[in-house]
Amino acid sequence: MTDASMNNGARRFDRLLFCTLLNALIALPSAARADTVSDFVGYYQNAYAEGRDLIPGPQIPLDISSIASRLDLQTVSPKAALSGSAFLGADGDVIKLAGVQGCLSAEPLEFAGMPTTCAMISLAGMTATLDEAKAGAGDAFPCHVFAQNPGRPAVRFAECFFVENGAVRSLSEALIRKGLAFAARDRTGRPVFPEYLQAEEAARSERAGIWASDQFAHPNGERTPVNSSTN
After folding, report:
1. Which pLDDT tens digit goes with each residue over 171-188?
2. Which of 17, 44, 57, 169 is an S-S bond match for 82, by CB 3.0 to 4.6 Å?
3. How far apart are CA 123 and CA 195, in angstroms?
């Protein structure tokens, strides 16, 4: 693939994300919802747009090594994005991606010439990337589930995969590589999946997605100016 075709692809995705973001900005303030599912989705999306992630973390430590040693894929049909790192499944469960961290900053910034926030870019990015993943898999794709929190709704912690141009891709890696989210870290600050940190660094060096902003709040807590002195 040539550099020109890659750049054209990036521009097409930015236009798609811009349209998704615009629609989300219009839809989120709406108080009237068509049904219970829309109420549920709107509740989580509104909170996330305000910088609050209502989806809890895992109640038990995740055995990340199981993805290599005991891969157990379950078919998941996404219904709607709930945050920059989670979505609602058709079965009513919440799927939280273990390897990715969405942006929660509600501070103003500009994206594709439009005033928005880092949280809204992550939320719209999850929506657009889910649509891309479903398009190549008949509205469903496989996920490896590490653990599940009980309750209603149940929250499953997983890594999900889809096919793009004949190759299998991680949904988490795709979000990170496009600059729409970040590599998840554990409590010590180390990446849950080291390869996703490499994807984050590549997105940062190319100023992809969120990284194109002059400054924003990274999930690790530091202010992150994007310029040559930080690379």
Report:
1. 999 999 999 999 999 888
2. 44
3. 23
